[in-house]
Amino acid sequence: MAKDSIGVGLLGCGIVGSGAARHLLAEAEAVARAVGVPVEIRRVAVRNLAKKRDVDLDPSLFTHSVDDIVEADDIDVVVEVIGGIEPARTCILKALELGKPVVSANKELLSTLGQELFIKADEKGTDLLFEAAVCGGIPLIRPLKESLAGEGIKQIIGIVNGTTNFILTRMSESGMSFSEALAEAEALGYAEEDPTADIEGFDAAAKAAILASIAFRSRVVAGQVYREGISQVTHRDIEFAQRLGYTVKLVAIAEEIDGEIAVRVHPAMLPNAHPLSSVRDSFNAVFVEGASVGNLMFYGRGAGSDPTGSAVVGDIVAASRNLITGGRHLGCTCYFDKRVLPIDEMESQYYMLLSVADKPGVLAEVASTFGSHEISIRSVWQEGFGDEAQLVIVTHRGKEANLQATVDDLGVLDSVTKVVSVLRVEGEEE
Ligand code: HSE
């Protein structure tokens, strides 16, 4: 395409959009060098024209109409940073239909209805790039999809949500309760107005679905990701974790086992020596295990206007360069149709805290319940005496269905007052 400049249209100018616009302006010369021609923001569609934006753009560029961008002849690259399903989905489909490359940061849309968008991009031979949709400023999508295109990825384990990592860090290091740590995350602006998507693991599940799809080259949607959040994690669990040499993190885990995919998001105890245990505060990190390359770790800022805006600009450069050179990045890489395992069929190690009667034969009864369901105990200790007695148990790896059956049976034993908590232990036994 003989073009002497590339026109960019932004759909949305919130936290991510304004960050992208600021970076595109600040790095205009480097971007022009990389692409071969200048890349200009020509229009920005927003809901509220009166709202002040944190970017120095001519007010005449702002419009109410998404069609002023999607359908306009002078817009070559469409950047969707509105979030949510609609109107984002319709705008992206329309832009792709017109052969325009799209850059999106929309994990919710891509992890649920992504397939139709990728099919459309492939049909039209254009780019749909989404580096900013997973872990903000950390380059992950292109490394996984392109740099590791010849790699057999075995497992991905990551801390992909900054808000929950901040909360768990505060609970671990300052002895705060979950609600105190959440209040601090809200005061510092880490938590969203409605923190449900973060603390209940929906945000992490969307990211896990996208990462699993790319890593194992088979589509996984957010609804197939087993999910538990961190609202049930207590300070007592964290205290026992510390005494056992573990750190509690909300982890996203995706692995391929005998040609099938296991993908889940839940709080887990990780050995203190595991590289993810030292990822503190609101940082994200993703640990990738490849068959040939070995272990890789990607670490950085998973959210925020500047880091996420920077990832969007990287994609704008890539898409613009392809328009100039006539190339295209790898399209949809979901070549296979692998089964996604239900949680019952997955395996883990487990930590369990039980309130028990402090009398002869209780430990034997508890141990035999584990044994009868093929769950092997690795360590056990008693905490407190008499009415305060608790058993802290860590198991070897076992099947989730067997663990659930163990919990059900323990719950009806006279000697077990309560199954206080169950947490998975990851990153220790293969
Ligand atoms: N709310 C997310 C987090 C960032 O706390 O990591 C956007 O995905």
Main β sheet profile = 11 strands, mixed
Shape: elongated
Provide the CATH superfamily of the largest domain.
Answer: NAD(P)-binding Rossmann-like Domain
| Through-space gap between termini | 52 Å
Give the beta-strand count.
17
Bound molecules: L-homoserine
In CATH, the topology of the largest domain is named: Rossmann fold
Radius of gyration over C-alpha positions, nearest whole angstrom: 24 Å
Number of domains: 3
Mean pLDDT, to the nearest integer, reads 96
Describe it for me?
There is one protein chain. This protein has 430 residues and is an alpha/beta fold. It has three domains: 6-136 and 305-325, Rossmann fold; 150-300, Dihydrodipicolinate Reductase, domain 2; 345-425, ACT domain (Alpha-Beta Plaits). Helices cover 36% and strands 25% of the residues. The strands form two sheets. Strands 7, 8, 9, 10, 11, 12, 13, 14, 15, 16 and 17 form an eleven-stranded mixed β-sheet that branches. Strands 3-2-1-4-5-6 form a six-stranded parallel β-sheet, sandwiched between helices. Helix 4 (88-97) runs parallel beside helix 5, helix 7 packs across helix 8 (178-187) and helix 13 runs antiparallel to helix 14. The radius of gyration is 24 Å and the shape is elongated. The model has no long low-confidence stretch (mean pLDDT 96). The structure holds L-homoserine. L-homoserine is lined by residues 161-163, 192, 198, 203, 302-303. Residues 161-163, 192, 198, 203, 302-303 line the site of L-homoserine (HSE).
